[in-house]
Amino acid sequence: MTRKPALAVVGATGAAGSELLQILTRHEDVWGGIRLIASPRSAGRVLSVRGEECAVLALDEDALAGVDLALFLTPGEVSARWAPVAVSRGAVVVDSSDAFRLDPDVPLVVPELNPHAARLRPRGIVASPHDTTLTLLPAVGALHAAFGLRELVLSSYQAASGAGRAAVAALREQLALVAGTELGTATGDVRRAVGEGRLGPLPAPLALNVVPWTGAVRSDGWSSEELGLREETRKVLGLPALKVAATCVRVPVLTAHSLTVHARFEDEVTVAKAHEVLATSPGVVLYDEPALGDFPTPADVVGTDPTWAGRVRRAPDDPCALELFLCADNLRQGTALNSARIAELIAAEFPR
């Protein structure tokens, strides 16, 4: 007997949840039914998916009953509590939070790179990487397969939406406050104009500014997102000793993360060969004609699926190293799309 599996989307009313519902509507229908779940305060809202109106259910054990696969787009503390409950009720869980990414019994999956790992889930959970990691890996993973990756030095330029809707609201309010002013020419004038009460979840003003910090404090001056980018990259690529150093920066962009990448390889590389690899890799678009003004920016890539790659150069002092710039929509490619693709891999395990 064949049947399509039943899907639950937990966190359906969030920003990534909204993107996911669009993706489910656009992709092939592999689901026997889709159940939308969110926090109790969002229960009763009606959302559209695949042309049907669905009432949102409050997250509880009953809402998770009878589900084959539960896709969590929730904060880590919510996933940590409720993902095991969903597994105990018979579901496979795909989780987009940081709750399980580095758990050795939970595979961390990027379908373009390690789809086989989605089947290896002793805890019944599959994790999706952080949105910054997902901006990086489609391109860097393809280059690793061609040249053998040895070392990464990274700087991220992360959009406000990566810190949640409160950060987006704070940036919008700050931009309105500073619009048309002469701020930014004297020490502290932007901070005074914005005021401490309008920072939202950020440690400093984001309008007319960049903030060299994302995540929580960790030892030796590192942030949780910098160390997470390092460990997630190692785990997905299967390179536990890979040298990775990252500096994560929040920038005044609403949506789409960017990265500068210094990648050192075992073999000598050329720009022509790197272009060939990137242009033919799934999940990557090569956009690299600087003389024509062609290189990816957040304004270009927002609302699109792939990682965009440009500014590809061979390092001037190392024939085994490349410099490049990557950019991707952090809500779409960086969260919702990867989770949907993992879920579709698992759905294919059901007999048809």
UniProtKB/TrEMBL annotation:
It holds the Pfam family Semialdhyde_dh. It is an enzyme of class 1 (oxidoreductase). Its EC number is 1.2.1.11. The keyword Metal-binding does not apply. Keywords: Oxidoreductase. Residues 6-121 form the Semialdehyde dehydrogenase NAD-binding domain. GO terms for molecular function: aspartate-semialdehyde dehydrogenase activity; NAD binding; protein dimerization activity. InterPro entries: NAD(P)-bd_dom_sf, Semialdehyde_DH_NAD-bd, Semialdhyde_DH_dimer_dom. GO terms for biological process: amino acid biosynthetic process. Gene3D superfamilies: Dihydrodipicolinate Reductase, domain 2 (3.30.360.10), NAD(P)-binding Rossmann-like Domain (3.40.50.720). It comes from the Bacteria. Belongs to the aspartate-semialdehyde dehydrogenase family. This is Aspartate-semialdehyde dehydrogenase. It comes from Streptomyces clavuligerus.
